[in-house]
């Protein structure tokens, strides 16, 4: 469910020459990172996401600027505002996401548990919510 999708705080090495944050596989990320991708040059007013993944785990980081991520597990919705590069939002599988409110020059970096696979996507919200409901029924 949506309660698994928490903000992860990464270490910060404060320095007058500029701060440093690091992300270590096995320590800060609850899966093995197999892919990194990033959204950039996003025009004002654009919306990304609009899909869910069957099995993929992700952590989203606002490397620069800010944006909002709305998560929806089929039952509950939550909006997160990301605006610091030392925070990451963990997104569990079976979570519909919309990303909007991109500030100009923002960079959205995503750490993912697997390489790209279109078969892992739900691109249709009704298909997703039906599958999420079935999953929830099976769990209780
Ligand atoms: P998509 O995941 O729908 O973008 P977003 O969720 O960020 O709005 O991907 C957009 C397109 O890019 C789609 O045609 C698939 C392709 N793509 C890859 O080829 N490899 C990748 O790692 C990703 C994330 C997308």
From TrEMBL:
Residues covered by the Sugar 3,4-ketoisomerase QdtA cupin domain: 4-130
Superkingdom of the source species: Bacteria
Entry-linked CDD domains: cupin_QdtA-like
Identification of the protein by name: Sugar 3,4-ketoisomerase QdtA cupin domain-containing protein
Organism: Oryzomicrobium terrae
């Amino acid at each position: 469910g949506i309660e698994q999708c928490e903000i992860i705080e990464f270490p910060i090495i404060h320095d007058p020459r500029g701060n440093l944050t690091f992300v270590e596989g096995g320590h800060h990320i609850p899966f093995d990172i197999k892919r990194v991708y990033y959204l950039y040059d996003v025009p004002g007013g654009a919306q990304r996401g609009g899909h869910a993944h069957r099995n993929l785990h992700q952590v989203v980081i606002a490397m620069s600027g800010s944006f909002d991520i709305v998560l929806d597990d089929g039952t509950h919705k939550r909006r997160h505002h990301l605006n610091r590069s030392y925070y990451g939002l963990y997104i569990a599988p079976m979570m519909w996401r919309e990303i909007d409110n991109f500030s100009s020059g923002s960079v959205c970096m995503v750490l993912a548990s697997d390489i790209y696979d279109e078969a892992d996507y739900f691109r249709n919200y009704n298909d997703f919510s039906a599958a999420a409901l079935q999953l929830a029924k099976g769990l209780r």
